[in-house]
Write a structure and sequence with these properties.
Strand order of the largest sheet of chain B: 1-2-3
Shape of chain A: globular
Low-confidence stretches of chain A: 150-163, 309-313
Low-confidence stretches of chain B: 1-9
Largest sheet of chain A: 7 strands, antiparallel
Number of helices of chain B: 4
Strand content of chain B: 15-25%
Radius of gyration of chain B: 21 Å
Number of strands of chain A: 20
Distance between the termini of chain B: 15 Å
Number of strands of chain B: 6
Shape of chain B: elongated
Structural class of chain A: alpha+beta
Largest interface: A-B, 36 and 34 residues
Order of helices and strands of chain B: HHEEEEHEEH
Distance between the termini of chain A: 22 Å
Helix content of chain B: 40-55%
Structural class of chain B: alpha+beta
Oligomer: heterodimer
Radius of gyration of chain A: 28 Å
């Protein structure tokens, strides 16, 4: 450990410029609102308001910058801030789980970076240094890592100093990025355009009704020949491809995943560069995901659910966005996760679970179709849509399954997008068996091994097992949990 | 440190040994709670019956009468069933909690996974000296596992017993 000399430091002066730039739009909004009221006072009055607003905002920014200091002590980071009410925050190194370095476009121009010290606490702003020099940021990260290594509380962390060249696990070159972008086909931008139009409509800037009314629809129908429709489809597909490529390239440009002493280190980004460490001790669950087209060509993505990492994605960190299975397996192995067993070893759920999954949709489809014949022919479309849902539910039932090996539970979900969860036994937080109102008469039950850091978005449960099998499996997982956890405690990462 | 081998012997998920029911006063708490909810639903309907429904052909007192009898049946039946749906078993390393009427859930929380423990007490519970024990884990879907209807002293004893088991490390 180097000297414990603790000089208080300010954030990088460029922070001032960025923050001032950031308040201008806010000020502008406030200014427009005010000037409407002030319009009677004349142009001079409005200008005066604008000037004083800018001045006040600027003064506050400068004051806040001046009053924000941080220093790195021998074993902790101390952050002091607050213009009127001072706040002093001490973050001991051994509480630090992760230090993320991010470089938005403006920060890159100034050679600075935003540093987020993750502690696993609920306050995201807790340890944020926005911004300090890039060199300082890297030094701080190395310092904390080394400090952590020396701290007795986490003595099992590797003590070796960070090597200059970290072994590379996965990288994406430009051709790969473009290919990934093609598979990342997205029509989300259509929704965005729609939302913007609706917003403009609300403001009274665009007359939505003038664009889309029955007269126009008739005209459009007359024009809609095979040729124009085909052209429209081609344009949409092309636009979707471009959108996918833009999104993939902007987030994953220069993707590099390397091995460090404590875990994985991921660098990526085109305009906003991010540099994130995924500590291996914090990884909980691995997820292999693949869309319908991707799978056809053998492409998958791998992410890890981590505890206390960046909460933006619900603690799910992508380790490889677009890779071959044989590229993913070494990463999994490096992270201490077992490789998924072959398809044949997965056990499905009973046939009667199909009734629970697709039955309600089928019943609903029957009712709606009946209504279509009796009352309203248009309801036929609803019936057809519900039939599609029925078939999807049945397909999802077929693809659902689970497997056990000697250290983890594997759960497969989904028909179109397939998800494979790898849940090591020792990562269970709670284990529960639940029987819903439709499951009970069919003697079915779902089994959930709850884990930390999940987004809650996707289901990791085994759905619709035989009720007695579910309890038996839950008992087995519980019996496997304790020794696995004891083993995980003993062995250093 | 932890008794790794003893787990599962005490029963696990299967209910060969009976689960401990909640304190019998919790049934009263549930009845009062259901009755209050029923009243809260009934009052505006009765008000509706005084004025707007007079405009229709419905005879006075019909709609509130139907709702009231439905509520009466619900208050008579549901609290007992919900009460019986709850149960728990405290093992050496874990606790099993069974709950839910519509969706029946059995959850096992290993004590080593408990991050912190709350004891909560509603106004009705307080009258009967009951409390709710809430076990917080780092999990995603069932991060807070509640166990209501414990005598206050029992809830505190369980909290202290579990706290003694909690290890400092997160993982």
């Amino acid at each position: 450990m180097s000297d414990g000399a603790a000089e208080s430091r300010h954030l990088h002066p460029a922070t001032l410029v960025v923050r001032l730039l950031k308040i201008v739009p806010q000020m502008l909004a406030a200014f427009i609102g005010l000037s409407v009221a002030v319009v009677k006072e004349g142009f001079g009055g409005a200008l005066l308001v604008a000037a004083s607003l800018l001045l006040a905002g600027g003064a506050f920014v400068i004051l806040a910058w001046w009053r924000f200091t941080y220093r790195v002590e021998a074993n902790e980071i101390v952050i002091e801030k607050g213009v009127l009410q001072r706040q002093r925050r001490v973050i001991p190194f051994d509480r630090v789980q992760d230090i993320a370095i991010e470089q938005p476009l403006l920060a890159r121009i100034f050679g600075t970076a935003r540093v987020t010290v993750e502690t696993g606490g609920s306050d995201k702003e807790e340890g944020r240094l926005d911004m300090i020099g890039l060199g300082d940021a890297r030094a701080l990260r190395d310092r904390v890592r080394r400090g952590k290594a020396g701290a007795p509380a986490v003595a099992d962390e590797a003590v070796a100093p960070v090597p200059a060249e970290e072994p590379l696990l996965f990288a994406m070159d430009v051709p790969r990025l473009l290919l990934a972008g093609l598979f990342n086909f997205s029509l989300v931008f259509l929704a965005v355009i729609g939302a913007v139009l609706q917003y403009l409509d609300q403001l009274g800037l665009v007359e939505w009704n003038q664009w889309f009314n029955s007269e126009r629809a008739d005209q459009a129908l007359h024009m809609a020949t095979m040729g124009t429709l085909l052209m429209l489809a081609v344009i949409l597909i092309l636009a979707g491809m471009v959108a996918g490529i833009v999104r993939m390239v902007s987030t994953n440009f220069g993707f590099r995943l390397s091995r460090t002493a404590a875990g994985f280190r991921r660098k990526r980004g085109l305009t906003t560069l991010t540099d994130v460490v995924i500590p291996l001790r914090r990884t909980q669950v691995a997820l292999i995901e693949s869309g319908p087209l991707q799978r056809l060509f053998g492409w998958h993505s791998l992410s890890f659910q981590t505890l206390g990492a960046d909460r933006k994605e619900g603690g799910v960190q992508v380790a490889a966005p677009f890779a071959r299975l044989e590229e993913l397996l070494p990463i999994l192995a490096e992270a201490g996760f077992p490789a998924p067993p072959p398809r044949a070893e997965f056990r499905g759920v009973p046939r009667r679970a199909l009734l629970r999954r697709a039955g309600p949709w089928l019943a609903l489809a029957a009712i709606v179709t009946g209504a279509a014949f009796a009352v309203e022919p248009v309801a036929g479309f609803g019936g057809a849509a519900l039939l599609v849902l029925t078939v999807t539910a049945a397909l999802r039932w077929r693809k659902h399954g689970h497997a056990l090996d000697d250290c983890a539970l594997f759960v497969r979900h989904g028909f179109f997008t397939r998800r494979l969860w790898i849940i090591p036994f020792e990562k269970a937080q709670t284990i529960s068996v639940s029987r819903g109102p439709l499951q009970r008469p069919l003697a079915l039950a779902s089994l959930l091994v709850d884990t930390a850091g999940g987004s809650g978005l996707y289901n990791q449960a085994i759905v619709d097992l035989d009720a007695r099998d579910a309890e038996r499996l839950a008992d087995r997982l519980l019996a496997l949990f304790y020794p696995a956890r004891a083993r995980a405690r003993l062995q250093p990462q | 440190m932890q008794a790794e081998e003893t787990s599962g012997e005490a029963g696990g998920f299967r209910e060969e040994t009976k689960l401990t029911p909640l304190h019998s006063d919790q049934l009263k708490v549930l009845r009062i709670r259901f009755a209050l909810t029923a009243l809260a639903v009934l009052a505006p309907i009765a008000l509706l019956d005084l004025a707007p429904l007079r405009e229709t052909a419905l005879p006075f007192g019909l709609v509130p009468g139907i709702v009231a009898s439905l509520a009466l049946v619900a208050v008579a039946i549901l609290p007992g069933r919900r009460y019986r749906a709850w149960g728990y078993r405290e093992g050496p390393d874990e606790i099993l909690i069974r709950s839910g009427l519509l969706k029946r859930v059995k959850t096992v929380v290993p004590f080593g996974r408990v991050q912190h423990i709350d004891i909560a007490q509603g106004p009705i519970q307080r009258r009967y000296g009951l409390a709710t024990l809430i076990l917080h884990t780092a999990g995603t879907r069932g991060a807070a596992v509640p166990l209501p209807g414990l005598a206050q002293a029992e809830a505190e004893r369980m909290r202290d017993a579990i706290r003694a088991q909690i290890r400092q490390d997160l993982l």
